[in-house]
Write a structure and sequence with these properties.
The protein is α+β, with helices and mostly antiparallel strands and 476 residues long. The protein has 18 helices and 21 strands. The protein has a 7-stranded mixed beta sheet with strand order 17-18-16-15-19-20-21, with helices on both faces. Helix 9 packs across helix 16, helix 12 packs across helix 14 and helix 14 crosses helix 18. The longest helix has 27 residues. The N and C termini lie far apart (53 Å).
């Protein structure tokens, strides 16, 4: 069967609308529209500009709607919008990097013990999680508590604007830290204990559901969490793989058939997020290319424009293992001058201070690769799953240097690509739903046939193992 589907894919830095075509044996993708995703400060609050994003989405859909068999939307995770009883936005959705979550984990743990939250949800503790964002409304007695009738995820906001259907898609619901995978529903006990109105949360629909129509075309729910869609497009040949969905964040994980909620996974602070067709993503969030993106933006503001290729060349020429950081240290979470914060971190930890652009970038890339090893070791140990190869998908798969450093750090081959895994995964779930593809395994085989990948073999193991010993001393 032949089909064309439209994949709307919104990341934290940019958005795109792609047409993905299937001729029965291969996939082909075509850009219809690309656009920046620029958050906006108003006062001291950081917002997503969802109305601008909706305008861009409609522009992209208009370019491909005539030939579309269906449409699917995925976005970044954890953020949400509030609607009133008439379906209107109560306010612009707030960005997960906004300061409103500062101190919120402790505030929530006073009402629900930390260990109990993990037992109920199986989700990694991060202050940006939906639970702490939404609890901040209660703590500060936000007027939204009186005005809102519905809380809805960002992709489901766009689905609502397309179809009129109010629901949460499963993979996005599982990122909130108030979804209980054992009970297969919202964790009302935690929400009630925190004081969040439980009536805000509508039904949860699985990926592969047709949620309605947009201008006569079916709207099908892919995994609406972008990592869920990306993992659906991993071109794996067997089950013994791990993946890194590499973009603004690096999501490093394993695919499993049920959540792993144990004392060991709690201690490792890993997460269980839903995937399509009976799968779960057992993974850890690691700060990803955010560090490089913010560094580049800082240098641009100082009058120095660097392409990512130029930054890579400068990093390659820099001395290896001169300085290391924990990419997930709290000082690197907010937007701002990452190079200066990185220098302050190195001073505080008694390391040589990176001065040049190349030294800063080398520190970022090597530290990311070592953090990938640290995370992978914990997931393998707590799952018992064998990993023979690491698949790097998403925009970070284009960085030959980071992929090679990752292979060196983890001591396993890295297969890089496809770069547009999120949009392809979004598309193949639509194609499975339409009956064009029979299964997820068949879809992955088709992705492997249709996209170019690059394999990196590990090198310099002794040097990397010594650097890893140093790196572990930085992790708290």
């Amino acid at each position: 069967m032949n089909a064309n589907v439209l994949a709307v894919d919104l990341g934290a830095e940019s958005g795109r609308v792609l047409r993905v075509s299937c001729d029965g044996s291969r996939l082909a993708s075509e850009d219809l529209h690309r656009f920046p995703n620029n958050p906006v400060y108003a006062g001291d609050t950081l917002y997503w500009d969802v109305l601008r994003l909706w305008h861009e989405i409609e522009h992209g859909l208009a370019a491909g709607l005539d030939s579309a068999s269906s449409i699917g939307v995925d976005t970044w995770g954890v953020d949400f919008a509030l609607l009133d009883g008439d379906g209107r936005l109560v306010s612009n959705p707030v960005h997960y990097r906004d300061t409103r979550t500062h101190g919120m984990t402790e505030w929530v743990f006073e009402r629900v013990p930390k260990r109990l939250i993990f037992e109920r949800t199986g989700v990694q503790f991060m202050q940006l999680n939906t639970l702490y964002q939404i609890a901040s409304l209660v703590r500060w007695n936000s007027p939204a508590l009186r005005l809102a009738a519905v809380a809805i995820s960002i992709p489901d906001l766009f689905n609502f604007w397309m179809t009129g259907q109010i629901a949460w898609e499963f993979t996005h619901a599982t990122t909130t830290q108030f979804y209980n995978p054992r009970a297969a529903g919202w964790d009302y006990e935690t929400l009630e204990a925190v004081g969040v109105p439980v009536q805000w949360f509508p039904q949860i629909l699985p990926p592969g559901t047709q949620s309605g129509e947009y201008k006569g075309r079916p709207v099908i729910l892919p995994p609406t969490h972008d990592t869920g869609s990306a993992v659906a497009a991993v071109p794996a040949v067997d089950e013994h793989f791990a993946y890194i969905s590499s973009g603004t964040w690096s999501l490093i994980g394993l695919e499993v058939t049920s959540p792993i909620i144990t004392e060991a996974s709690y201690e490792a602070n890993v997460t269980n997020e839903g995937g399509p067709f009976g799968t779960f993503r057992y993974l850890k969030n690691v700060a990803g290319l955010w560090l490089a993106q913010q560094s580049r933006a800082t240098w641009r503001a100082q009058g120095h424009e660097y392409s990512y290729d130029e930054l890579t060349r400068l990093a390659e020429a820099a001395e290896p293992f001169r300085s290391l950081i924990d990419p997930d240290a709290s000082e690197f979470l907010p937007p701002g001058d990452i190079p200066e914060r990185l220098r302050e971190y190195c001073r505080a930890t008694g390391q040589p201070v990176p001065e040049t652009v190349g030294q800063v970038m080398r520190t970022i890339y090597e530290s990311l690769a070592l953090k990938y090893r640290w995370a992978l070791e914990r997931m393998v140990a707590t799952s018992g799953k064998r990993v023979d190869v690491m698949h790097v998908i998403g925009g970070g798969s284009r960085s030959a240097l980071l992929c090679q450093l990752t292979a060196n750090a983890i001591g396993r081959p890295v297969v890089a690509g496809p770069a547009e895994a999120t949009a392809l995964g979004n598309a193949v779930v639509q194609l499975i739903t339409l009956g064009v593809l029979p299964s997820l395994a068949a879809a992955r085989e088709m992705v492997a046939r249709s996209t170019a990948t690059v394999r990196y073999e590990p090198q310099q193991w002794a040097e990397w193992d010594a650097a890893y010993t140093r790196f572990k001393g930085l992790i708290h």
